[in-house]
């Protein structure tokens, strides 16, 4: 009898974490590595949020809380959904987890049976398919390539849905591409979903506040109110409030689903960190004045990286509308050989050779379900990004 679970064989470790870890190891060994793999802002948590966490510690708010969130945070989340998205929820329809990843996993664990299918547009965040597999479901990948701006078309969504489909996982702005759907584009997708009442929507809105060029964010239940009763809208404080390590994600949806997710959480982690919850209350209820300056900062970095990568022979980098990633194509580099003698057979070979020869760490496109591409996180300094682009250009110019 095997000791490890058969389920474990269905999944793989996170490639983005692996790249970040590898870059840190090489840096510790003395290499001048520029890491472009981490999906987190490089600036600090706002002072008012830090102060709220400190105040919670000093007030002794360090005990167990309700399994899926303190009432004050649930109220703040309800107010946020109303303020930002025009969505009405009660605290009984809200769940708070240890990061957005746990919220998604709880939803899948609470709903999937063996053979249930989950439609996932590709490129996708690396964890979506593996979480589906861990929960016993089957990911169905619907490709959304460069020719559609990395956006799922209504036709591709329709083709992916079967009688076994239980969920569509939807992410806008997207990790890894930064692609964002307008309300009109979303409406075309929700029209498809209206024709398939057995399909639920899990909308990952984590990058909601990181949008550029006057883009107006919209979320599925907002665009099509008829889908409200079968939509789980997930968000968190990690990206917009630079709180990745605080580990607070949240979602709102039908009360029956929220109760089922609470049951899962009660037998796994129980409540999220009490201190982080109080800090999240301040994040959602306190000043939002830093969001626009941060958007402007990221937009400048985006423009720097897009221009730098498009100057590299063999690379095509579209301009994303949100998040802090670009997802350039390296179709023009495939089949060539690097100065160091590496054959660029695919995007993983490209990323490996780039790290070995130029000390730039990126995540290869196959990890996100669409090749030949790689992902750059531009959530780092202008100086680091400028140097990284120069190294990538030098690497590409050396291909023959």
UniProtKB/TrEMBL annotation:
<dbReference type="GO" id="GO:0004069">
    <property type="term" value="F:L-aspartate:2-oxoglutarate aminotransferase activity"/>
</dbReference>
<dbReference type="InterPro" id="IPR015421">
    <property type="entry name" value="PyrdxlP-dep_Trfase_major"/>
</dbReference>
<comment type="similarity">
    <text>Belongs to the class-I pyridoxal-phosphate-dependent aminotransferase family.</text>
</comment>
<feature type="domain" description="Aminotransferase class I/classII large">
    <location>
        <begin position="32"/>
        <end position="392"/>
    </location>
</feature>
<dbReference type="InterPro" id="IPR004838">
    <property type="entry name" value="NHTrfase_class1_PyrdxlP-BS"/>
</dbReference>
<protein>
    <recommendedName>
        <fullName>Aminotransferase</fullName>
        <ecNumber>2.6.1.-</ecNumber>
    </recommendedName>
</protein>
<comment type="subunit">
    <text>Homodimer.</text>
</comment>
<keyword id="KW-0808">Transferase</keyword>
<keyword id="KW-0663">Pyridoxal phosphate</keyword>
<keyword id="KW-0032">Aminotransferase</keyword>
<dbReference type="InterPro" id="IPR015422">
    <property type="entry name" value="PyrdxlP-dep_Trfase_small"/>
</dbReference>
<dbReference type="InterPro" id="IPR050596">
    <property type="entry name" value="AspAT/PAT-like"/>
</dbReference>
<dbReference type="GO" id="GO:0006520">
    <property type="term" value="P:amino acid metabolic process"/>
</dbReference>
<dbReference type="InterPro" id="IPR004839">
    <property type="entry name" value="Aminotransferase_I/II_large"/>
</dbReference>
<dbReference type="GO" id="GO:0030170">
    <property type="term" value="F:pyridoxal phosphate binding"/>
</dbReference>
<dbReference type="Pfam" id="PF00155">
    <property type="entry name" value="Aminotran_1_2"/>
</dbReference>
<dbReference type="InterPro" id="IPR015424">
    <property type="entry name" value="PyrdxlP-dep_Trfase"/>
</dbReference>
